[in-house]
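Figure 6 in text form: structure in, sequence out.
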């Protein structure tokens, strides 16, 4: 199992196996960490194409009806974050295609809001509005590695999951071979939150060189 954490000089690490530190940070930017984990036995260079949805969705505990579009990020922030994910995938030799073209990989980006758990195992019904072939009730599966799941922070979390679509079968769990998590304190400024999320996304890809053609 490969686990990497990243911290910056102005950031403090949040331990995913414990609660937040009792001493309060001086600044909201002190609450940020980038966590990545992947299947060390998977060869990412076996695939060439990927799909990326048109929206970063917001996970809710209430769930959604299969086929229903869940809430999404603000349009500007949504496009900026997706552009960064797209640029990182393209820079590593992968080609973006339409979801109907049966891509080798699918990158699912989601966010959770304040006080929410990091839901690695949420239901695929959140994505049937974009990719109906997933079907309702299908869960995510992490072969050869175990992402951390039982944690909650009073912050916002961006979760990226890279799914192997080539070996996907009907009514079976989705094989996820990489997760990238950007967990950070939220300010009142959308642009500030977006800028720090972009930094986290870039770092998540940078600290996972295995994702490459």
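Output sequence:
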């Amino acid at each position: 199992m490969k686990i990497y954490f990243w911290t910056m000089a102005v950031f403090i690490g949040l331990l995913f196996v414990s609660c937040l530190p009792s001493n309060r940070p001086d600044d909201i930017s002190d609450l940020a960490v980038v966590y990545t984990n992947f299947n060390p036995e998977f060869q990412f260079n076996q695939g060439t194409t990927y799909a990326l949805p048109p929206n970063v969705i917001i996970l809710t505990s209430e769930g959604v009806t299969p086929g229903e579009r869940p809430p999404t990020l603000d349009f500007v922030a949504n496009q900026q974050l997706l552009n960064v994910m797209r640029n990182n995938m393209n820079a590593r030799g992968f080609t973006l295609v339409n979801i109907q073209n049966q891509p080798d990989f699918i990158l699912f980006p989601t966010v959770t809001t304040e006080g929410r758990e990091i839901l690695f195992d949420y239901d695929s019904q959140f994505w049937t509005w974009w990719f109906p072939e997933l079907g309702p009730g299908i869960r995510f599966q992490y072969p050869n590695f175990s992402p951390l799941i039982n944690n909650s922070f009073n912050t916002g979390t961006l979760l990226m999951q890279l799914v192997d679509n080539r070996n996907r079968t009907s009514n079976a769990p989705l094989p996820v071979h990489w997760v990238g998590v950007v967990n950070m304190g939220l300010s009142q400024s959308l642009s500030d939150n977006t800028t720090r999320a972009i930094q986290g996304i870039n770092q998540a890809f940078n600290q996972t060189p295995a994702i490459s053609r």
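Caption detail: Residues 2-11+34-151+167-182+190-206 form a domain with the Double Stranded RNA Binding Domain fold (CATH 3.30.160.670).
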